[in-house]
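pinging the channel bc i need a second pair of eyes. not urgent but kinda urgent?? the chain im working w is below, pasted from the shared doc
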Amino acid sequence: MIYEITTLIGFTAAGILGWMWNQSRQHYALLEARALQLQELYIKEQSLKTKIQGELDTVQKEYHALERDFAVLHTRYEESSRGFEEKIRLLDEAKAQMKVQFEQLAAQIFEQKAKTFDEAHTKGLDLLLKPFREQIAQFATQSKEQFIHDAKERQSIKDEILRLKTLNERLSQDALNLTQALKGENKTQGNWGEIVLERILEESGLREGHEYEVQSTLSDEEGKKFRPDVIIHLPQNKDIIIDSKVSLVAYDAFIRAESDEERSHALKQHLLSIHSHIKGLSTKRYEQLSGVRTLDFVLLFMPIEGAFLLALEQDNTFFKTAYEQNIVVVSPSTLLVTLRTIEHIWRSEYQERNAKAIAESAEALYEKLVAFVEDMEKIGEQIGRTQKSYEGAMNKLSSGKGNLIRRVESMRKLGLKPKKLLPSSLTEADDEETLL
């Protein structure tokens, strides 16, 4: 039994040792193969390292060669740049010198040509341009005088405005005194308004029959007659009509009232009278009258400053109402300012017309001068052609073989006895040509 167990253990140990030996041999073979692979990889790595080192040496050699070439080229570039900059500097100096010489030469040539031209044409041009120059000088003088005159006129506006106060006080006082004396007579008040209006027109500088008309009789489309107090003419075919027939009876009552109740009633009547007159003016249709040009406004003239100011203070709607109907309510002071403005507009219009007439005259004179110069050039060309034809005819007459002078002189020498001989200048010239 023990023997059998021992035998079994022996076989088992032998099997295990055999298996382990077999495994050891396989592992050794595997390690040996792996060592061979590593040796091959090492050989390849050394070969690749040697190859790369060779290529690196080659690249370093090429780099050093390129570095040397770059240094040489850089040195040459710097030398070339310095030479190029020097050439540019010399070229700029030569260019500047040539420019100066050219300008001097051009100036010299221009001066010579200008001198020659001036000597040849100064007298002729002075003769041709003298009328035009005189006209331009006259125009400049008139323009300067007109400018000075306008400046003085503008300066005088301040004085005119200062005069307004004095005139307004005088007119208002006269109107007030007369109104108190009228005692409600509308006809007399209307005449007084026309008198005040006439005095303001005289002060305005406008001229009757030119810039305004008084009491002109006009007709509408139906033949109805109208007599506006004043028609003010404006430039560009426009008119303004002045009406001075507003009633001041209520204002007179207001002035003479002794109690507040009477004054209140008179004030209401005064405002009502103004509104009524505005309404009446709006229905007259002055713009449809024959002889009235484009109508801008109708001026409702209140000849008493106090009446105007009282109405404006108590009821400022009447002014707007009137304006919507193309009616402007004015007092002596505002009317005078308006008329003075219109007078200034007319003065500017006349000045503009005069300047335009002078300019047109100068333009016409210049065009005449141009036409005259053109005609003179044509005459010069015709004279040149005539001179050329004359020289051709004279050549045929006295130059060349068989010319007429030579022939007739030969005939005369044969025995002709004419009463008159050819000019010696022609015959002598022909003899000289024959000798030549």
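so The radius of gyration is 61 Å. and The mean pLDDT is 73. — does that match what u expected or am i reading it wrong
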